[in-house]
Amino acid sequence: MNAPIKIETGTMTSKGQILIPKAMRDLAGLAPGQPYKVQVNEAGQVVVAPLGFTPEEAAARSRRVREAINAIAGKYPNPDGMSTDEYMREIRGSYEP
Question: What gap in Å lies between CA 57 and CA 73, rounded to an integer?
Fold first, then answer.
């Protein structure tokens, strides 16, 4: 059984809206503008969960990763002139992932 980490209470508005406290949104990984899903589990509990990255968030994340790679590219030259594959074989030995 999943024991709750923390319980908070609130009141539903006359329009059927509920407020999810910030601490709960943070724990669940919910962010403003992010798509989410609502479902009822086997115990009859309503579960709210994020759907994942929006296309804009995925594009921004990819851009940040590319920028980070480009920022360090060429800064650590291999003094022995080995290729990446040769270097990995040397440090791993016969181990192959």
Answer: 24
Specify whether the CB–CB gap between 29 and 50 falls below 8 A. Answer: yes
Task: Find out whether 20 and 48 touch, Cβ atoms under 8 Å.
Answer: yes
Beta-carbon count within 10 A of 50 CB: 15
Q: Coil, helix or strand for 49? A: strand
For 31-58, write each residue's pLDDT tens digit: 888 888 888 989 998 888 888 666 777 7
Query: How far is Cα 97 from Cα 92, in angstroms, rounded to an integer?
Result: 9
- The CATH number corresponding to 7-52 among 3.40.720.10, 3.30.450.20, 2.170.150.20, 2.10.260.10 equals 2.10.260.10
The single-letter DSSP state of residue 19 is: P
